[in-house]
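Propose amino acids for all 810 sites.
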C-alpha cells in the first residue's frame, strides 16, 4: 500500500464524514454515431484500466492516513445497457448522483448505453480523488488509441508509462520535507500575512450556518472580437492571458465587495515534471492568489504589478493547499471555505477532440448540481490569445444556489464583460471608474428605483396656511386633545394668532428664529403655529438635554427669542430673550391676533439639531418647501379623513415630533397628546392609551414599535397604521395583526424622511424589513466613493436628496 497524496487525503476524509456527498463526482459522456464494435471498445477499456492504477484504486484507513490499494482490472468494468436515449440520460444522471464508497471499490463507473444500432453513449463518472481536469485529455486520447488497436486485433501502441500515480504520491511526500517544505511555507506565510480570508459577495439570501453545496453552472459568452483585444493587451504588458483575465475578474470582485485586498483561488496542474504529464489521477493543486488594488490605478499598471507577484506565486506552487491551510490555521467557519471562496481558471482549446475509427464523437460534460466553492469561473479560449486568429472567449460559472440567484450571476458576468471591453479600449484608465452598469440597469437604478413614480406637487402650500384653511372649513372640529382639555381648530388658530401678536411685539418677524422649550400641550402646538404665522422659524429644544448641550445649541443657533413652559429654564445666553409660554398667552388675551404670513418655499420653517453622536451636533435648517413637500406626499400616501386621530409621542427636539403633528392638522384630523410620561415609555401603557383614545395612526420610534409588535392585539382596535423610524427595524408584524406597519427612513437633513415601505407580516417576505423607496420629490440611491450608483446588491453609501433636502446647517 502507498499513502494517499496530500490532495487525496482530505477528499477521502470528507467522504467518510459525508458518505452521501456527490460534490466531488466528475462526470462526462461521449456520444458515438456509427458502427461501434462493442467488444473492441470493452477490450480498449480494459487495457486503459490496466495501464493506469488510478482507475482501479481504492482507499483504506491507515495509521498515517488513507492508503492506496490497487485492485485487479476487472474491478472497474465497462457495463453495457440497452435502452432508449431518454433512459440512457436518466441512468447516467442517476450514476452522477450516486456517491462513491472509496474504501470498497474503485472510484470509477463506466457505462455503454446502446440506444440504436449505430447510436451509443459512453458515460463516465469518476471521483475527483482519482481524476482531475487535466486527466481528461490523456484519458480520451488513450481510449481512442486503444479502441483503434482493438479493431485491428493488436495491443495499443502507446509508450510505457514511466511511473504510476502511487510513485507520484511517494515522491511528493518525500519532497515536501526539510528545506523545500520550509522554503515553501515561509513564502506563503509572508505572502498571505494579514490577508482577508473572507470575501463577502452580495448574496441573495442569508448565508446558511453550514455550507450548502447545491449548485448550478451557467454558460457565458463574450463578444467575438474581445479575444483579439485581450491578446494585444496581455502582450503589451508582458503578461499571460490568464493573468489578464484573472486581474479583470479581481477588479469585478473588488467592485462587488468593496475590498481592495482580496484572495482568489486558482487551480494549477501539478504536472511540472515530464514523467507525470500522461498520468491519470489527482495532481491538481490550488493557489490562493492575493491582489491589492490601489486607488486610481489603471488596468495596465495593475496588470504589470500583478504579473510580478503571480510569477512568484506560481514558482511556489508545490506546497499542497491542504498543508498551507494547516500551517496558517485561519479561523474556521462552517459557513465558508478557508482562505478563499472564489476561484478562477483558464482552459485552452474549444473542447477535447476524440477521434475513433468509423465513429463521429461528441464530448459532453454533465451539468453540475453541486458547487465546491461559492463562485468558480472557468474561462475557455478557442484560438486567439496566442492561438489561431479569430479566437473566441467563453466561460462557465459554477455557483451555490443557496447564496445566489441566477439573475445575480448573469448580471455579474455582464459586468465582467464591460470591464474586459473597457480595459481593452483604454488600458490606462483607472479601474475604479469603469462603468459596470448598462443603460437599462442605470435607468432602473437612477430613475425607476431612486425616485417616486408619482410627480410631486410643484408648489405645495405652506403648512401653517393649510392649517388655517382647515380651520375655516371645520372650525369646531377637534384639533388637539390633552386629557380633558380639547382645542378645536378655531381655538388653535385663535390662540396662535394671539401669541403671534406677542411675538411681533418682541421683534419676531420674517427670518427670525424662536427657540421652543415647551411641554407637550395644545398651547405648545399653538406656539409653533404662531411662529410660522409670523413668517419665522422655530428651534426645537428639549428640557432633558444636559445644560452644556442646551447652552451650546442656544449659542450656536442664536435665536431671537426662547419661549419656555412653566418650570422650565434655559442657560443665560447673551442676546437671547426668554419669555414664558403662559405669560405670552395671558398678555395677549382678548386680542384679535395676527394674520398668517405668506412665505417662500426657501424660507426657513424650523431648525433641529442632530444628536452629535458622530461629533459636534449640527443644526439642520429645514425650509417651508421641504416640509410642504413632505406633507403633500403624506396626504397622498396616507389620506386623513374625519375621525382620524394621530399621536404626539416623540421627544420635543426629535424631528419626528414635527412629522407626528402636522400631517393630521393639515388634513383636518385630531392629535391626541398623552398626559403621562408612562404612556411614552411603557409599551403596555401606550397600548392601553391607544385603545382609550381610539387612535387610528401612531408613530413610534423603532424600539417602541418593535415592543408594540410583540404584544397581543384584539381585532377591534381602532388603530389602522403604525409608523416607525429612527433605527433598523428587525421585527416583522405577526400574521393577523389588525393594523398595517410602515417603515420609514431619512436623516434629519432630508426633512424627516426620504423613503418608506409597508412591512409585510412574518412568513410573507424573508429577511429584515426594507426601508423602501423614495417619497415624492426625493431620491435615494446607493453610491460608491465617487458618488456613482453601484450595481444591484453591492454595498455602498446611501445618498438621499431632492425637494425635501434641508437648506443647510447652522
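Proposal:
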Amino acid at each position: 500500500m502507498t499513502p494517499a497524496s496530500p490532495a487525496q487525503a482530505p477528499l477521502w476524509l470528507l467522504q467518510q464524514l459525508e458518505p452521501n456527498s456527490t460534490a466531488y463526482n466528475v462526470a462526462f459522456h461521449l456520444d458515438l454515431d456509427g458502427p461501434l464494435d462493442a467488444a473492441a471498445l470493452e477490450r480498449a477499456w480494459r487495457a486503459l484500466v490496466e495501464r493506469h492504477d488510478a482507475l482501479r484504486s481504492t482507499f483504506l484507513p491507515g495509521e498515517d492516513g488513507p492508503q492506496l490499494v490497487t485492485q485487479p482490472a476487472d474491478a472497474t468494468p465497462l457495463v453495457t445497457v440497452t435502452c432508449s436515449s431518454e433512459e440512457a440520460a436518466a441512468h447516467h444522471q442517476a450514476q452522477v448522483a450516486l456517491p462513491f464508497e472509496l474504501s470498497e471499490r474503485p472510484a470509477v463507473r463506466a457505462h455503454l448505453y446502446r440506444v440504436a444500432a449505430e447510436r451509443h453513449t459512453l458515460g463516465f463518472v469518476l471521483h475527483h480523488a482519482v481524476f482531475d481536469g487535466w486527466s481528461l485529455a490523456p484519458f480520451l486520447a488513450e481510449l481512442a488509441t486503444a479502441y483503434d488497436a482493438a479493431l485491428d486485433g493488436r495491443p495499443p501502441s502507446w509508450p510505457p508509462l514511466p511511473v504510476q500515480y502511487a510513485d507520484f504520491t511517494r515522491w511528493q511526500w518525500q519532497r515536501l520535507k526539510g528545506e523545500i517544505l520550509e522554503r515553501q511555507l515561509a513564502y506563503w506565510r509572508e505572502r498571505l500575512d494579514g490577508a482577508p480570508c473572507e470575501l463577502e459577495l452580495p448574496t441573495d439570501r442569508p448565508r446558511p450556518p453550514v455550507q450548502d453545496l447545491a449548485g448550478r453552472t451557467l454558460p457565458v459568452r463574450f463578444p467575438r472580437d474581445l479575444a483579439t483585444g485581450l491578446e494585444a493587451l496581455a502582450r503589451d504588458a508582458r503578461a499571460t492571458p490568464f493573468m489578464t483575465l484573472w486581474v479583470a475578474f479581481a477588479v469585478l470582485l473588488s467592485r462587488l465587495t468593496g475590498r481592495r485586498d482580496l484572495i482568489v483561488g486558482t487551480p494549477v496542474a501539478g504536472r511540472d515534471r515530464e514523467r507525470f504529464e500522461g498520468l491519470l489521477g489527482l495532481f491538481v493543486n490550488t493557489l490562493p492568489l492575493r491582489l491589492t488594488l490601489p486607488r486610481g490605478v489603471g488596468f495596465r499598471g495593475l496588470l504589470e504589478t500583478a504579473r510580478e507577484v503571480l510569477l512568484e506565486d506560481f514558482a511556489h506552487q508545490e506546497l499542497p493547499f491542504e498543508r498551507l491551510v494547516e500551517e496558517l490555521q485561519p479561523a474556521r467557519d462552517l459557513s465558508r471555505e478557508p482562505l478563499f471562496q472564489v476561484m478562477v481558471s483558464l482552459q485552452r482549446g474549444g473542447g477535447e477532440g476524440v477521434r475513433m475509427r468509423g465513429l463521429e464523437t461528441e464530448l459532453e460534460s454533465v451539468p453540475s448540481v453541486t458547487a465546491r466553492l461559492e463562485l468558480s469561473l472557468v474561462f475557455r479560449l478557442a484560438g486567439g490569445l496566442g492561438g489561431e486568429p479569430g479566437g473566441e472567449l467563453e466561460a462557465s460559472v459554477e455557483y451555490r444556489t443557496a447564496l445566489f440567484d441566477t439573475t445575480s450571476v448573469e448580471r455579474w458576468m455582464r459586468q465582467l464583460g464591460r470591464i474586459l471591453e473597457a480595459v481593452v479600449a483604454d488600458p490606462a484608465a483607472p479601474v475604479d471608474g469603469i462603468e459596470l452598469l448598462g443603460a437599462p440597469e442605470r435607468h432602473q437604478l437612477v430613475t425607476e428605483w431612486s425616485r417616486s413614480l408619482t410627480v410631486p406637487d410643484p408648489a405645495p402650500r405652506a403648512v401653517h396656511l393649510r392649517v388655517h384653511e382647515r380651520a375655516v372649513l371645520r372650525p369646531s372640529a377637534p384639533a388637539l386633545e390633552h386629557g380633558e382639555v380639547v382645542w378645536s381648530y378655531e381655538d388653535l388658530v385663535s390662540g396662535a394668532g394671539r401669541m403671534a401678536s406677542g411675538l411681533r411685539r418682541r421683534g419676531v418677524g420674517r427670518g427670525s428664529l424662536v427657540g421652543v422649550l415647551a411641554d407637550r400641550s395644545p398651547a405648545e402646538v399653538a406656539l409653533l403655529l404662531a411662529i410660522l404665522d409670523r413668517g419665522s422659524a422655530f428651534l426645537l429644544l428639549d428640557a432633558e438635554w444636559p445644560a452644556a448641550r442646551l447652552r451650546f445649541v442656544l449659542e450656536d443657533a442664536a435665536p431671537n427669542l426662547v419661549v419656555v413652559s412653566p418650570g422650565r429654564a434655559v442657560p443665560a445666553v447673551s442676546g437671547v430673550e426668554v419669555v414664558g409660554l403662559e405669560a405670552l398667552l395671558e398678555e395677549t388675551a382678548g386680542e384679535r391676533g395676527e394674520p398668517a404670513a405668506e412665505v417662500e418655499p426657501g424660507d426657513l420653517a424650523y431648525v433641529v439639531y442632530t444628536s452629535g453622536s458622530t461629533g459636534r451636533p449640527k443644526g439642520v435648517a429645514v425650509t417651508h418647501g421641504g416640509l410642504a413637500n413632505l406633507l403633500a406626499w403624506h396626504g397622498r400616501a396616507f389620506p386623513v379623513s374625519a375621525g382620524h386621530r394621530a399621536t404626539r409621542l416623540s421627544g420635543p427636539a426629535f424631528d419626528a415630533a414635527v412629522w407626528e403633528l402636522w400631517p393630521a392638522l393639515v388634513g383636518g384630523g385630531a392629535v391626541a397628546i398623552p398626559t403621562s410620561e408612562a404612556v411614552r415609555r411603557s409599551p403596555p401603557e401606550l397600548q392601553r392609551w391607544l385603545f382609550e383614545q381610539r387612535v387610528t395612526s401612531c408613530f413610534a420610534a423603532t424600539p417602541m414599535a418593535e415592543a408594540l409588535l410583540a404584544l397581543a392585539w384584539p381585532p377591534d382596535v381602532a388603530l389602522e397604521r403604525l409608523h416607525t423610524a429612527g433605527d433598523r427595524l428587525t421585527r416583522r408584524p405577526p400574521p393577523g395583526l389588525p393594523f398595517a406597519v410602515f417603515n420609514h427612513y431619512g436623516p434629519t437633513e432630508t426633512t424627516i424622511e426620504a423613503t418608506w415601505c409597508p412591512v409585510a407580516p412574518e412568513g410573507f417576505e424573508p429577511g429584515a424589513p426594507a426601508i423602501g423607496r423614495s417619497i415624492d420629490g426625493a431620491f435615494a440611491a446607493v453610491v460608491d466613493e465617487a458618488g456613482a450608483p453601484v450595481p444591484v446588491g453591492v454595498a455602498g453609501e446611501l445618498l438621499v436628496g431632492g425637494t425635501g433636502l434641508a437648506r443647510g446647517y447652522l
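The chain has a mean pLDDT of 91. The chain has 22 helices and 32 strands.
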